[in-house]
């Protein structure tokens, strides 16, 4: 109990990181920050474009400079209505790889009778491995299942075990509720995820926007749980009453300050995302990438 209270005291009293120093003109370049080897896009940001014309959209992303994407929407061996082998070829033909994708893992993903993952969940992980992915990430926790976080962490552990045997990593992507809602013993959902899963089996994908939306400081969590945050979603927060998402660099989040701690975080994969649009989704993700390139950390 003492450790939990100490953590909460730390979180309550930590201040937000100081705003990043403004960049002078000569510092701006088209090159990514030297510490960034993996910069991608979550395809959910342009889901309508992908649904209408996947081939044309992927080609356009390559033209913007994207070399990695994070997928979503896997369904029984297909993505965006294409067999995964065909989708993989489409990406490869455009010089793009897909290190990670989002696929739901729920209480129903585990067969209590057999004490193992369901065949459908195993197939999803096996297919991700066949595409050369390094991660398969659970993007959401069903609202009705959240009170059963004590059972869910067991399912995530099982997914992590199976993924490791398949040659990749299982991960979890947060929204705001993990930093607001408490589990059976009054620990935050995020604390359950971090404490009750083995770091060797379950990686964390920090959605920086949602951590800030929940009025937490990402740096606090990085310092408390170093090495756990292997991937991140980068989208900014608008200076508005609704605090909607906005292109990286156009909002209030100090990405330079946060990413200066990337080594401590264990962060390797930076994934741009956008959920609200001032222009078109494609224009938005192009601007977000250009702005990310101007970051220096």
Question: What does this entry look like structurally?
Answer:
- The chain has 297 residues and is α/β, with parallel strands linked by helices.
- It has 12 helices and 14 strands.
- The protein has one domain: TIM Barrel (Alpha-Beta Barrel), CATH 3.20.20.
- It has an 8-stranded parallel β-barrel, surrounded by 4 helices. A two-stranded antiparallel ribbon has the order 3-4.
DSSP strand content:
15-25%
What is the overall pLDDT average?
91
CATH architecture: Alpha-Beta Barrel
CATH class: Alpha Beta
Radius of gyration: 19 Å
The spatial strand order of the largest sheet comes to 1-2-5-8-9-10-11-14
User: Helix fraction?
Assistant: 25-40%
Low-confidence stretches: 1-30
**N- to C-terminal distance:** 37 Å
Full CATH superfamily name: Divalent-metal-dependent TIM barrel enzymes
Please tell me what the overall shape is: globular
Largest sheet composition: 8 strands, parallel, barrel
**Could you give the order of the helices and strands?**
HEHHEEEHEEEHEHEHEHHEEEHHEH
Helices and strands: which structural class?
alpha/beta
CATH topological fold name: TIM Barrel
Annotation, overall tally of beta strands: 14
Query: Tally the helices: what do you get?
Result: 12
């Amino acid at each position: 109990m003492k450790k939990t209270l100490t953590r909460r005291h730390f979180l309550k009293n930590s201040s937000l990181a100081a705003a990043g120093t403004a960049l002078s003109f000569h510092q701006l370049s088209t090159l990514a920050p030297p510490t960034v080897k993996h910069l991608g896009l979550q395809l959910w940001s342009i889901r309508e474009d992908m649904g209408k014309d996947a081939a044309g959209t992927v080609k356009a992303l390559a033209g913007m400079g994207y070399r990695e994407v994070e997928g979503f929407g896997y369904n029984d061996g297909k993505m965006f209505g294409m067999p995964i082998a065909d989708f993989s070829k489409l990406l490869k033909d455009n010089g793009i790889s897909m290190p990670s994708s989002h696929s739901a893992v729920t209480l129903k993903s585990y067969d209590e009778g057999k004490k193992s993952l369901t065949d459908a969940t195993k197939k999803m992980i096996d297919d991700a491995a066949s595409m050369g992915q390094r991660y398969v990430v659970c993007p959401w926790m069903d609202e009705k299942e959240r009170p059963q976080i004590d059972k869910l962490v067991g399912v995530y552990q099982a997914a992590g075990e199976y993924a490791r045997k398949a040659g990749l990593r299982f991960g979890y992507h947060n929204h705001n509720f993990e930093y607001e809602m408490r589990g059976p013993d009054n620990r935050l959902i995020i604390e359950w995820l971090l404490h009750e899963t083995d770091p060797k089996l379950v990686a964390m994908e920090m959605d920086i926007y949602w951590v800030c939306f929940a009025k937490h400081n990402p740096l606090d969590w990085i310092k408390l749980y170093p090495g756990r945050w292997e991937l991140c979603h980068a989208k900014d927060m608008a200076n508005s009453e609704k605090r909607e998402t906005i292109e990286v660099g156009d909002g209030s989040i100090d990405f330079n300050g946060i990413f200066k701690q990337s080594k401590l975080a264990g962060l390797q994969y930076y994934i741009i995302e956008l959920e609200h649009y001032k222009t078109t989704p494609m224009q938005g993700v192009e601007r977000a990438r250009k702005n990310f390139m101007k970051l220096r950390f």
